[in-house]
Specification:
Layout: H1 2-13, E1 18-19, H2 22-26, H3 34-41, E2 51-53, H4 58-71, E3 75-78, E4 95-98, E5 105-109, E6 114-118, H5 123-131, E7 135-136, H6 149-155, H7 162-165, H8 168-171, E8 172-178, E9 184-187, H9 200-203, E10 212-219, E11 221-222, E12 226-234, H10 237-249, E13 256-260, H11 262-268, E14 275-283, H12 285-302, E15 305-306, H13 310-318, H14 325-329, E16 333-343, H15 344-358, E17 364-371, E18 374-375, E19 378-388, H16 395-412, H17 431-450
Parallel strand pairs: 2-4, 3-4
Antiparallel strand pairs: 1-2, 5-6, 6-10, 7-11, 8-9, 8-10, 12-14, 12-15, 13-14, 13-17, 16-19, 17-19, 18-19
Length: about 475
């Protein structure tokens, strides 16, 4: 299909925006998903797209989708390629829609605390643009320097400061998107509306399956006047969960609240003897002073010991360091991070079950977890597993087994199977457990209604895509 659509795309958009050369296609075969890199390492890389389109305007995106819809050609949207669950895997019959050239700051409104960006805008560059005006987006995913604003929305992302500033759905003001038939929609208008269902939610977490996000307006905050840090140490994960719950349910909201199990605590700081809890307090100076004092008082009442605060400073300075998969693969190690969530009464059982199960994998080097996002009704867990195998042919099955064990343990105890990385391909076949049969059927019907020809990012999100 793409062999015939490429000339038509070049005619509609201009030849300089359509690429059929191997270099352009090979560079965009997949995102940061570990399994794609495993396949590359084993000499069995996936195929490249039929062609790459690099639009520079909304009109370019509309023209691309109209032609693709008319010809039944699959379209795979790509932000900056930082996804980790297989949301981008190229196919030879598909158009790879690289949004990276749509990277403008559309406006910054200091009175209404709003900013608009093209969907391909680099997240750190977006933050720097508003910071120059004394403002912040408040969204700090670990991938902030390598992810796009549109990608945040498409994957329903969360940032490290979410406990006070919210997740991306709390920061989004409006979303501009092109539907599979080429129609343009702008979803969201005022600070809040009661105008039927909130259609922004169709694009939040849609992972390129319902259309292409082309622009995002975000609700900003003034930059924090003051910042302080706190660190604590607890005997075990349950004691830490209880301490976090008491802090949050008492009404305090440190933007960062992180708890590490014993293994990860010692990796974070050699002085740790049990489980570390790190907090960042940020906002008006009076609020920061009151919050740090209140949290310290709660810790004293619950018998929670303080830890050196320079541990938090070290984390702040190194928090966005991302390892290269290649250095592990060369040693026969497969690994990944898997984030889930649950309410307070279920989270400890999920931690115990998942970590115990991971350690049963032959060659397991690590099966650990930390929490990084806390809510009044529960929190997330961010599992890490690493397994070494001497048999290269077993790397893929071993990797998938690690994922299966975490998904099964979370499902057994009633947790949610994804917190902020999305579904992609690696979680796709678990989605019915999350939504239920009727819920998955509803999502399929929405997909069919918006994308009757099934052109948008096939193979992602829906189990039978």
């Amino acid at each position: 299909m793409t062999s015939s659509i490429a000339p038509a795309l070049a005619g509609a958009l201009g030849a300089e925006k359509v690429f059929s050369g191997d270099g352009a296609k090979d560079a965009r075969r997949h995102d940061y998903w570990m399994l794609s890199h495993v396949r590359d390492h084993l000499g069995a890389p996936g195929p490249a797209a039929g062609c790459v389109v690099r639009p520079t305007s909304v009109a370019d995106v509309q023209a691309t989708l109209r032609l693709a819809n008319e010809t039944g050609t699959p379209v795979i949207p790509l932000g900056l390629g930082s996804g980790v669950v297989g949301g981008v895997v190229a196919a030879p019959d598909a158009v790879l829609l690289d949004m990276g050239a749509m990277n403008a700051v559309r406006f910054i409104d200091t009175e209404n605390l709003l900013a608009g960006f093209d969907a391909g805008k680099n997240g750190l560059e977006a933050e720097q643009a508003v910071a120059a005006e004394g403002l912040t987006i408040g969204h700090w995913p670990q991938s902030v320097a390598v992810s796009s604003v549109g990608g945040w929305v498409a994957t329903r992302a969360s940032g490290q400061f979410s406990s006070a500033y919210g997740n991306i759905e709390d920061i989004v003001h409006s979303i501009e998107a092109v539907l599979p038939n080429g129609d343009l929609v702008v979803l969201g208008k005022g600070p809040r509306a009661s105008s039927g269902p909130d259609l922004r939610q169709l694009m939040l977490g849609s992972e390129g399956t319902l259309g292409v996000i082309t622009g995002v307006n975000l609700s900003l905050r003034r930059a924090a006047e003051s910042r302080a840090v706190s660190a604590f140490e607890v005997a075990d994960m349950r004691a830490g969960f209880a301490f976090q719950r008491e802090v949050i349910q008492s009404g305090w909201g440190p933007p960062v609240v992180r708890q590490y199990d014993e293994r990860e605590s010692k990796r974070l700081d050699a002085r740790a003897t049990a489980c570390l809890i790190l907090m960042v307090h940020e906002g008006p100076a009076a609020l920061v002073a009151a919050e740090t004092a209140a949290v310290a008082a709660i810790a004293a009442r619950m018998g929670v010991a303080s830890a050196p605060s320079d541990i938090v400073d070290h984390w702040l300075g190194h928090r966005n360091t991302v390892p290269s998969w290649d250095m592990f693969l060369q040693r026969g190690i497969v690994l990944d991070t898997v984030e889930v969530s649950a309410d307070w009464t279920r989270i400890a059982a999920i931690y115990d079950d998942a970590t115990a199960s991971l350690k049963e994998i032959p060659g397991c080097l690590a099966g650990s977890a930390h929490s990084s996002h806390v809510y009044r009704s529960g929190l997330n867990l961010y599992f890490t597993f690493a397994v070494q195998t001497s048999d290269p042919s077993a790397m893929e099955t071993t990797y998938l087994d690690g994922w299966r064990r975490i998904m099964d343990a979370t499902d057994r105890h009633g947790g949610s199977l994804s917190h902020h990385h999305g579904i992609g391909r690696v979680r796709r076949d678990y989605l019915e457990r999350e939504l239920g049969t009727a819920g998955l059927g509803l999502l399929r019907r929405i997909k069919t209604a918006l994308d009757p020809r099934g052109i948008m990012n096939p193979g992602v999100l829906l189990p039978d895509a």
